[in-house]
Amino acid sequence: MQDVSIIFNYFPALSQQQQQQFSMLKNLYVEWNEKINVISRKDVDNIYVNHVLHSLGLAKVISFNKGAEIMDVGTGGGFPGIPLSILFPEAQFYLVDSIGKKITVVKEVAAALELKNVFAEQIRAEQVKRKFDFVVSRAVTRMKEFYSWTHKNVKTKSFHSLENGILYLKGGDLDEEMQELKRPYGEYALSDYFKEEFFETKKVIYVPV
Question: pTM of the prediction?
Answer without folding.
Answer: 0.97
